[in-house]
Every structure is written in C-alpha cells, then in structure tokens.
Amino acid sequence: MKSLTEWVDELKAQEIPVLQRSVRELGKLAGRVERITAGEIADVVLSDPLMTLKVLRLVNGMSRSRLSNEITTVEHAVMMLGVGTFFNRLSNLKAVEDSLKIFDGALPGLMQALSRAHHAAWQARDWANFRADTKSEEVYIGALLYDIGEILLWAYAPEQALQIRKLEWRNKITLAQAQKEILGFDTRELQFALVEAWRLPELMQAFMHSENTIQPRVLGVTLAASVARLAETGWHGSALLADYEVIAGMLHMHLDEVVTMVHRNAVAEARHWDWYGVPPAAALLPMLPGDWPEEPGEVGETPQPEEEQHEVCLMPQPVKMRQAMEEISVHLDGSLNLHDMLLLVLKGMHQGLALDRVVFALMVADRSAIKTKYVMGALPDSPLRQFQFSPASPELFGRLMSKSQGVWFNEGNRKTLEPLITEETWQMIGHGEFFAMSVMVHGKPVGLFYADRKHGSCALDEHSYQEFKKLCLRAAEGLAHLAKK
User: Fold this and answer.
1) CATH 2.30.29.30 fits 318-484, yes or no
2) What is the Cα–Cα distance from 455 to 452, expressed in whole angstroms?
3) What is the pLDDT of residues 284-295, one digit of tens each?
C-alpha cells in the first residue's frame, strides 16, 4: 500500500484531465479567440471542476514575481494570462473519459461526483449573493473544489475508487472509513496535500477546512457540499433538515423560505445535466419520503447527451448586474456617450442576468422603423442581427412602442400573443421565449430592448424578467440625460 506522501509525489506532477465537453466547448471558443471575453471562457471552465482546478493550478503555479496576489477566480486568471496565452498554454487538453472507458462503472462514478460538485457550487453562490457577497465566484469555486480529492481519485485511480464505493455500501460504513481501509488515508488528506503542492490560493484551501466554518463564507461552502451529497438519496432526510436549519440561521430566513430557495437552486442547476450525463439531484424532488434502497443497482454506462444538442447555459452574476445599474446611475450627468451607455446596459443583461442574446433596436431618423443598433451574444450570421419592425405596426413589438412597457413571451401567453408576431419576425428571433421592453425618452419612443436565452434548455424566469425591466428603465434614465446634451 502506497503512503500518502507517495500518492502526492506521483500525482502532483501529472496533468489534470478534463471533461470532453470542456475540450469541445473551449475548442469552439478558440476558433474566435480575438472576439471572446474572459467571462465567456470562465462560463465554460466553471462547469467543470477539473478544468477549474487546472486553470487555478496553472496561474497560481506561476512565479510570484509575475503575480502580485493570489488568483482566486477563473475570469481573473484568464485576464492575467491573456486570452491568447490561455489557449496556447491549454491547447493539449486530455479528456478524462478516454482513460476511464476500460473501468466498468468508473465513468458514472466520476460524473456523479462532478455533478454533485456543480450542484454544491450553485447553491453556495446563491446563498453568497443573498448575503450580498461581492465576490460570490470565489464561494462558487470553493464549493466546486470542496471534494476535489474524491474527484481526483476517480480520475487517477478508478480501481481504488470502485473498491471504496463497494466497501462503503457492503459494510455500511462511512466514505472516509472505506477510503482509509483501502488507501490508508481519506481523500481529504490527499486533497489538502495536493492543493498545497499545487500552490492553490490560501482562500481556496480555507474553504476546504471545516474548522473555518465560523466564517460565513466557509460555512456556506460546507453546507452546500453537505446538501448536494445528502440530496442524492432524497430530499426528506433528517440530516438535510438539520442543514436547512443552519442555513436559515446563516441567512436569517424562515425554514420554509430556505427549503424553497434550495429546491429552486437545485432545479436551476439541473438544467446543466448534459455536462455530466447523470440524473441531477433535482430529479428526486417529486419523490415522497421513504427509505432509500440499501444496495445500489449496477451502474450502467453514462448516458451521453446528443452531440451539440445543448449549448452552455450562462450563469447569472448579480454583482455584474448591480455594477451596471450603479455605473449608469453614476453617469446620469451625461458623461457617457450613447455607445458606451448602451454597451454598459447590454453587458449587464448578458453577464449579470445570463441572457445569451441581447439586442437594442433604435428608432431611425425618419421614425419609420426601429432597427437593430447593438447586439451581444448572437452569432455573426444570426438573423437576429436583422431584427427590425415598424413602430406603427399592429404586431406585438409595434404595440409595445405606445408607452413604456415590457413583455415576457412564454408558454403561458403564447396562444394569445403568437398571432401578434409575423412569420418574418419569427424567422429573425426564433420560436422561443423572450423578453422585450420599449424605451421612452420624454414621452417619445426611441427604441426597444430584446433578450432571450437561445430558446434552448436555459429557461427564462420571473426574477430575470423583473431585473431586465429594471435595467431597461435605468437605461431610459441614462438616455434621457443624453438627450439633454
């Protein structure tokens, strides 16, 4: 049996494999390297705990003479490296799926651990945002990597990982006990040694240590990891209820509000299931209370989502939304020009609200039409870039221009509103849900904001709609001040 030191010496120099999905999605971005942002790269990286670890290991392992401070977020890491350097340094990514194919049951085991980590990160970030944590991505990453030792064991030593799982279920012992019996230590000990060897930020190491839970950020990460693991065997256990009570105290919320929040987050996170191909914890929400089967069934092959069927869902960044709102307010003195003002608004919608495609259509000089002026998120050949309509038209968008008003087109109102949209317009925007709101300045229509989430699995929601309208109204304020200049 190898010692912990031997394991660390063996693993610390190895390349970290990543998900095949990461390889594919980053390959797409590399094809337009001069037109992408650090945020777009981070959206992909943060869906894969292994890729996230790889990036932080790379940038924090560089000479401290180049980096004055530790790098604790992926977006910051990409900005420090530069987009071009990022793709050059990470051009030969190894897909973890390739090395696990020969080990029956290992790939589903890894995918379950990755899915659990993503669920924990999603919960932790939302709680951090609720607490007005301005650096919630750090908390997200802290939860994403909280059990990275277990994930690395599946990736590097699948035979031992399978033995541990079998022993845990057969002898009804804890995971840590099974790990110590097979390895001589548990994976958290391995994890602590590796992250120190890889010079990961002290903040990330602090998130992993339970003795730091007196700090609210660390407590949130620890609770999120616990909730994500417990939820895999149902949502009605006493241990989960105990976690809810601690969360309620941490967030100063009623218990029923916490349960609603956690369930809502689980459903939102479940929309990313296709990254991992295993059932998300939210799939168990409809189940009634009862005993969980004592023995697991045979683990089959990981169901693979259809190639290219789903795109990456952007992650809302409330901090970016607040920054956009605040920056517009600061410049209500007219110190921003039209271009800068609208780009600020579109960035708030795209990054802050995770709206994939955002358009501002402006009234032309003779007021005969409203045509696309600024676009963010749409492909270069997207018909959405040709979006236009007559403000006098009886169709839906024309009707919106009669006053300051918005619409969320969804399944609930489709039958009523669909006849108000021409086939020509459908061809430009696609046949899915969208937000739209007119912009009035001094009582006159000047344009319209349109936004959607690519009409895929990334659904729109009520909260995003309300925030979208707030940003549109703030934009109207800014445009009104520009009109005075």
Assistant:
1) no
2) 7
3) 888 656 555 554
